[in-house]
């Protein structure tokens, strides 16, 4: 094993030396792919790349099945300055952190006109991957939070999909009162102290036109924060959301909606495929729209999606960047949309004929993705996230009031983002 | 290694004949001791001593990977920061509280289980298996399973409560109940090993002692307090100390059950260290926290060693 | 070291009461495992039905099929097993040597050495993750069984050494001496006479080491990213998706993970309990 690995490293080293002199020498690229995003389909994309570039061999590595587990693994690898990984896929919240730590190399030199290159993507992705004018990663695919609703129930009771959170509360009360089903909840969202709870907090906060961070500085609006926390807590107190919402994680929302026990659900794009699956009790009864706004505000969604970064410790940075440019191209995006149902990071791909044929609902997804905002782009995002999610969780559990929560949040955020 | 040293070892044979001081000076005895302890020393140096030294060194540095700045010497800054960090105090307090609750809890439950398991059952294997399974179940599995048990809607605990006519509790919605659920889980997981050790002790107590006590007219309760308990003391002490050290390191069960929530009300010091190092990449501060935790464990170990020595 | 398994005159000894107590013991120990077994036979729809069901209404083996096909579960088992066995063997070998030195040889600062071994091991491995990773990388051991075997050995070394010291101290020196007079070397006597006599202690130490390795999660996750080298606790988490948490399939995998240990325990239960009984754990 050890010998084998040493040999590989040696070979890789030799390959680098040779490739500078002789172009046809073999380059081995190790790519970290998140195992929850169809590594089998990515493999096909890599095969196509290998076919076009016979001097490159791509090996896939995976580790952990959740964004959090993968981050823990990658953090350990990068902290140790390990050179075995060349390319890694990163959750949209991480490129800024990895760039600040000096773990990734910027793409500016290979992109030519970086601004023009980034303009091709959905604007939120250009923002999320640019730190101080440096393009630190290139988008792999998009994601956003959607409002799923029970088309059949809304039609039955003559209710339109809500435009504001108040309308949503009214609609939920009306439908649940009429249905008289004790198991039917009005709204399900994420109240557990997970990453989803950060989005929970930010949705109404953003909708009020406020930013958490601007130009790397904290721009915390306490009133908006109190209102946001209060909005969710009121849903619980008014019986629109259920009492144990503080233990609800993303997939609990999905399961309960899928079992037919939820009228409105806030969730990521993956839920759609599950709702329309064979085991679903709500197949063909689901509608999807953009998330509601606060009264008088703009609709806002939480930007998800993953990005490709090139490791600063890679011995094959040039080849790795070439591979990433291929992976982050409209062609690959289209291929992944059709074969893995991953949302495209390019606006045009949503309306591509082959894509709309394979995944018709992407047509309704595009306007939602366009309202999506990036969570704070900061190297200390993990701390920011922890502060927000634990506060949201504590407020929903009734441990602290929205006012106390906002005060604590502000105090802790000030210490992190001076 | 063995063959090379054998020739020198032969000389050490008639040790009972030689006086202690010649033995003490006998190089082969010392060489042998060194050789025998060498693997342990090497392994501990590699896996513990060297990393700990690096950790202590790092704890005096400003080293946060997210800042992008190179490490600088910080003196005791990280330790000073700790004093005014409310989360440090909260997680430390939670750790101490978990230790104070689950160690005696596991002892009492373990004692009860051991006394029950010591009854003359016809078939002994189901009883033994019931004590061994919780012990052999990985901590992370136990956390997962009990998180499911305590789920407010689909959990079996609330189902039983409801069947008994109580209202279900939303366990992970309140600091107190979440803490209780975690402590119950830890006690369940650790009491069985405690029971095994106590059971082992119980079975070494000669029957004749009880017979004699019965002749003296001592009741069963008195027998328990005057014979059983004193004779069990040595094994209980050791079990307690080992349990205390592992309780101070509590990580897996709250990590899998609550992630420290609601808020940070069930987070432990080990979780906070892990979070600072692996999630926040603040290696300097994380290392300082780890050093504090090491000091806590060392304190308990010192007590332990004193007790062992006192025992003879 | 008496094996006389006397039963103390317990506080309670009526027969129906005894059955009740046996029942309580079994429920306490087995219920979680049984519950996982039931869960593994349910469909996801049944799992989220209200009110919840206890016994599966329509038992299905589909979850087991998925547990074995979604991930290479047998491979996880094999890796866990090999890592645990090898680290147990290494732990026993090293701690037998150390324990013999500490129990039999005149060593200056014996107590100090023993204290050091224990003290050093109270350091929580969680906090050493990053430096350990660097060491393993420097030694080229990442993605090998050895990367796990070494720290797991350290995990169990102190407790095993303690147990063995007390066992070795209980073995009369005469037996060893006569073996040496018969031409055995000192190390020969150790492995031919002392270790067999201390078998219950060695066995107890072995079981402790095995269970410690079998349980470990964090290092296994961090050091071995190669899918071919994953151990069971890490493997179990792979059934979980970014958002999805398929309880029935995870339960099936858990059951598969619990069964081998349960079988080991059923086979060896008498020896485990008697090993502990022999006073080894008393330190």
Describe this structure in words.
The complex is a heterotrimer of chains A (418), B (312) and C (283). Chain A is built from 19 helices and 15 strands. With 418 residues, chain A is of the alpha/beta class. Chain A folds into two domains: 2-143 and 304-373, 3-Layer(aba) Sandwich (D-Maltodextrin-Binding Protein, domain 2); 146-302 and 380-416, Periplasmic binding protein-like II (D-Maltodextrin-Binding Protein, domain 2, 3-Layer(aba) Sandwich). The longest helix of chain A is centred in the N-terminal third of the chain and has 20 residues, at 2-21. In chain A, 55% of the residues are buried. Mean pLDDT of chain A is 89; it is low at 14-23. With 312 residues, chain B is mainly alpha-helical. Chain B folds into two domains: 2-59, no CATH class; 85-311, MetI-like fold, CATH 1.10.3720.10. In chain B, α9 (175-204) crosses α11 and α13 (269-279) runs antiparallel to α14 (283-311). The two termini of chain B are 34 Å apart. In chain B, 50% of the residues are buried. Chain C is mostly helical and 283 residues long. Chain C contains 13 helices and no strands. In chain C, α4 packs parallel to α7, α8 (173-181) crosses α9 and α10 (199-215) packs antiparallel against α13 (247-277). The longest helix of chain C has 32 residues, at 73-104. The radius of gyration of chain C is 23 Å and the shape is globular. Mean pLDDT of chain C is 81; it is low at 1-11 and 279-283. At the B-C interface, α1, α2, α3, α5 and α6 of B face α1, α4, α5, α6 and α7 of C.
């Amino acid at each position: 094993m050890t010998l084998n690995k040493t040999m590989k490293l040696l070979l890789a080293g030799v390959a680098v030396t040779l490739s500078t002199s002789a172009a046809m020498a073999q380059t081995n690229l190790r790519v970290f792919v998140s195992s929850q995003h169809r590594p089998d389909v990515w493999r096909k994309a890599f095969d196509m790349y290998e076919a076009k570039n016979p001097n490159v061999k791509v090996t896939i590595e995976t580790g952990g099945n959740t964004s959090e587990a993968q981050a823990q693994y990658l953090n350990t690898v990068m902290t140790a300055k390990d050179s075995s990984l060349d390319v890694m896929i990163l959750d949209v919240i991480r490129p800024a952190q990895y760039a600040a730590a000096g773990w990734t190399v910027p793409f500016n030199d290979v992109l030519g006109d970086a601004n023009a290159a980034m303009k091709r993507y959905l604007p939120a992705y250009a923002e999320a991957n640019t730190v101080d004018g440096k393009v630190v990663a290139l988008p792999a695919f998009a994601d956003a939070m959607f409002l799923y609703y029970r088309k059949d129930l809304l039609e039955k009771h003559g209710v339109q999909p809500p435009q504001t959170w108040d309308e949503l509360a009214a609609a939920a009360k009306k439908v649940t009162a009429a249905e008289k089903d004790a198991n039917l909840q009005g709204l399900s969202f994420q109240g557990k102290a997970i990453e989803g709870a950060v989005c929970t907090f930010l949705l109404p906060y953003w909708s009020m036109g406020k930013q958490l961070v601007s130009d790397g500085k904290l721009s915390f609006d306490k009133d908006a924060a109190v209102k946001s926390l209060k909005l969710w807590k009121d849903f619980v107190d008014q019986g629109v959301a259920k009492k144990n919402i503080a233990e609800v994680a993303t997939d609990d929302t999905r399961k309960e909606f899928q079992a037919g026990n939820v009228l409105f659900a806030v969730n990521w794009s993956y839920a759609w495929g599950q709702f329309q699956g064979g085991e679903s009790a709500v197949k063909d009864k689901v509608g999807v729209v953009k998330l509601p706004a606060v009264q008088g505000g703009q609709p806002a969604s939480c930007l998800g999606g993953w990005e490709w970064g090139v490791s600063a410790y890679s011995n094959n940075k040039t080849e790795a960047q070439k591979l990433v440019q291929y992976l982050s191209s409209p062609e690959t995006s289209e291929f992944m949309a059709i074969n893995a149902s991953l949302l495209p990071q390019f606006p045009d791909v949503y309306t591509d004929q082959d894509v709309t044929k394979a995944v018709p609902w992407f047509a309704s997804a595009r306007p939602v993705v366009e309202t999506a905002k990036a969570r704070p782009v900061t190297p200390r995002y993990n701390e920011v996230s922890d502060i927000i999610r634990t506060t949201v969780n504590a407020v929903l559990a009734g441990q602290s009031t929205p006012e106390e929560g906002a005060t604590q949040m502000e105090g802790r955020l000030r210490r992190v983002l001076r | 290694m063995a063959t090379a040293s054998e020739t020198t070892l032969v000389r050490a044979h008639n040790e009972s004949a030689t006086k202690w001081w010649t033995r003490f000076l006998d190089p082969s005895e010392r060489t042998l001791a060194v050789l025998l302890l060498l693997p342990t020393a090497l392994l501990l140096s590699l896996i513990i001593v060297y990393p700990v030294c690096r950790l202590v060194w790092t704890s005096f540095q400003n080293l946060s990977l997210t800042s992008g700045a190179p490490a600088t010497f910080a003196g005791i800054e990280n330790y000073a920061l700790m004093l005014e960090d409310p989360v440090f105090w909260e997680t430390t307090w939670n750790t101490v509280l978990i230790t104070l609750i689950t160690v005696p809890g596991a002892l009492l439950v373990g004692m009860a289980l051991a006394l029950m398991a010591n009854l003359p059952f016809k078939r002994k294997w189901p009883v033994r298996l019931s004590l061994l399974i919780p012990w052999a179940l990985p901590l992370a599995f136990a956390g997962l399973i009990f998180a499911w048990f305590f789920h407010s809607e689909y959990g079996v605990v609330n189902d039983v409560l409801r069947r008994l006519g109580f209202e279900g509790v939303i366990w992970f919605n309140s600091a107190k109940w979440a803490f209780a659920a975690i402590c119950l889980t830890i006690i369940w997981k650790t009491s069985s090993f405690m029971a095994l050790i106590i059971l082992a002790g119980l079975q070494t107590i000669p029957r004749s002692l009880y017979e004699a006590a019965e002749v003296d007219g001592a009741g069963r309760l008195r027998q328990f307090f005057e014979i059983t308990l004193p004779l069990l003391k040595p094994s209980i002490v050791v079990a307690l100390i080992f349990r205390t050290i592992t309780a101070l390191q509590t990580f897996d069960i709250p990590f899998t059950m609550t992630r420290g929530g609601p808020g940070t009300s069930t987070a432990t010091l080990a979780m906070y260290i892990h979070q600072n190092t692996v999630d926040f990449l603040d290696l300097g501060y994380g290392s300082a926290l780890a050093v504090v935790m090491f000091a806590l464990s060392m304190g308990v170990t010192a007590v332990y060693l004193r007790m062992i020595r006192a025992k003879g | 070291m008496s094996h006389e398994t006397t039963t103390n005159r317990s506080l309670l000894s009526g027969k129906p009461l005894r059955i009740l107590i046996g029942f309580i013991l079994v429920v306490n120990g087995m219920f979680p495992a049984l519950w996982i077994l039931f869960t593994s036979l349910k469909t996801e729809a049944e799992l989220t039905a209200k009110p919840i069901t206890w016994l599966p209404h329509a038992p299905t083996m589909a979850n087991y099929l998925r547990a074995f096909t979604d991930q290479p579960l047998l491979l996880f088992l094999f890796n866990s097993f090999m890592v645990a066995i090898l680290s147990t063997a290494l732990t026993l070998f090293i701690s037998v040597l150390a324990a013999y030195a500490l129990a039999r040889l005149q060593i200056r600062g014996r107590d100090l050495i023993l204290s050091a071994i224990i003290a050093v091991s109270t350091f929580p491995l969680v906090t050493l993750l990053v430096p350990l990773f660097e060491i393993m990388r420097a030694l080229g051991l990442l993605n090998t069984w050895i990367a796990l075997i070494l720290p797991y050995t350290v995990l169990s070394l102190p407790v095993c050494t303690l147990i063995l010291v007390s066992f070795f101290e209980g073995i009369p020196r005469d037996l060893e001496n006569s073996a040496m007079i018969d031409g055995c070397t000192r190390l020969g006597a150790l492995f031919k006479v002392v270790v067999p006599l201390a078998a219950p202690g060695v066995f107890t130490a072995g079981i402790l080491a095995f269970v410690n390795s079998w349980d470990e999660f964090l290092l296994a996750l961090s050091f071995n990213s190669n899918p071919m080298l994953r151990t069971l606790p890490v493997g179990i988490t792979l059934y979980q998706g970014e958002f999805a948490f398929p309880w029935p399939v995870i339960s099936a995998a858990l059951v598969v993970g619990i069964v081998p240990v349960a079988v080991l325990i059923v086979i060896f239960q008498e020896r485990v309990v008697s090993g502990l009984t022999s006073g080894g754990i008393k330190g």
